[in-house]
Known about the structure:
Blueprint lengths: L7 H11 L27 E6 L2 E2 L23 E4 L6 E2 L21 H9 L4 E2 L2 E4 L6 H18 L4 E5 L3 H16 L3 E6 L2 H7 L3 E4 L14 H17 L5 E4 L22 H25 L2
Parallel strand pairs: 1-5, 1-6, 1-7, 7-8, 8-9, 9-10
Antiparallel strand pairs: 2-4, 3-6
Protein name: Reductase
Amino acid sequence: MDDAPIHYIERTRDWYLALGYGNPYRYAHFEEVPFQPPRKPLADMVVTLVTTAAPYQPGKGPQGPGAPLNAAVKFFVPYAGDTAQDHDLRIAHVAIDRRHTSMEDSRCWFPLPLLRELAGEGRLRLARRFHGAPTNRSQRRTLEADVPLIVQRCREDGVDAALLVPNCPVCHQTLALAARGLEAAGIATVVMGCAKDIVEHVGVPRFLFSDFPLGNGAGRPHDPASQRQTLELALDLLTGATRPRTTLQSPLRWSESSEWKRDYCNAARATPEEIASARAEFDAVKAEAQALKAAAIP
């Protein structure tokens, strides 16, 4: 069973219970899934990118490779960026797999440079803006405030299709909900992620699953061939899916061994000291995030 995907809902539930938190988080779930077939050939589609990565903010603590959880760089309102420019987006603010991935190559979670290359080749038309979606545990906030704003901005840009790349477990829920909202608005989507159980539990039209550690939904780090192949698979899924809840698994492997799957949030492998340390870190990050959120959202 080492090759089976990690069950993130179960793993994170058990982890937070081990840390002493009660009332396990309940992920969103829908039976009905909206589905918008592409209305144009790929070369004529205006394609955007939706990310949960945060813009780098100098002076707000570690945000690069190996950085711990950092609530100071969280954002609470969707942002947009110019796709013609390069952007320094990082993932130090989310519960990615810090043990088995490096956080060094942003193309693993933000494939904008490669999308620009494909646009330059005439494969697609790149929207003028990409979009950042807040990682919000409040499903109501995501559905009633964040998703409608992203949909509105995509409509303003004449977007035909969106690629959504989540990072942490709740990020996967956030962008699954965003994909549903975009599809209902007539914009075709593909979620490119690593938490299969969460995305399929929510229910999305198209999902490209890479069985990699969290934070690598767009390919392996420092491996341009895997990043290109991953994006090509997503575009094939965008144009080829004929029904909702279509999941395509990437044939790429993270490594020869599947041992990395045993470590993520695994209370059975943690010492009492490690659990106590994790609890203290989460409490501190949560308190800081709540204070920042209260200031950002009246």
